[in-house]
Amino acid sequence: MNYQASYILKIGDFMISETVVVSWVIIACLGIVSYLLTRNLKKEPTSKVQVFLEFAITSLNKLVKETMGERAIKTLPFIIPYICSLFLFFLFSNIIGLVGLRSPTVDLDTTLAWATITVVMIYYTALKNKGMGFFKGFIDPVPIFLPINIVGEIARPISLSFRPFGNIMGGTIIMSLVYQLLAFISKLIVDINIPFGQLIIPVPLHLYFDIFAGCLQAFIFIMLTMVFVGSEAEVE
Q1: pLDDT range class, residue 199, cuts 50, 70, 90
Q2: Are 134 and 127 in contact (CB under 8 A)?
């Protein structure tokens, strides 16, 4: 079994992997859906779609402000649309596996890129609000803790990237093994290459691994991003 992303476009030494292509597809779909949902917005809502959109955006604004605080919002004015975009991209990256495409979150490069963006925002917010005093935290409560605090900072992006990657990859491997087992059992029962067991039995597993676990991991990631960045906006 090979779970490495394959290269589907090669131009000399330039290669584009399946992960990149599927990510472009998701971004394009989200862009088209966003345009269709927002092209006829009115100052006073007259449709259920606009009412739902306003409710969703208001709820998201409230969640981000309560989690991060007003100071973090002022430091990073783009953080609310970023959090929303990241959540939707993460969610649809997992759901797209239901139509047979490879989820971008199965590739460590994807989650590592998200974690890198989060870490950059953490340090930018810390330096913006605390100045050089931010580095004083590395020797708190006593200077002997400097190596431990440095290891903790290194571990943060590793933890952020490997948590969603490990969970989604684990679900992908389990589903692959289930499909192979059902195909084998189907062939034993009926001596024809019609894997009828794969039509119904995997449905509840897909509901868990692709939808429930996908939503959960997306929510955990954005919550950790907001908590880490928001904590650095607090001035001692």
Answers
A1: low
A2: yes
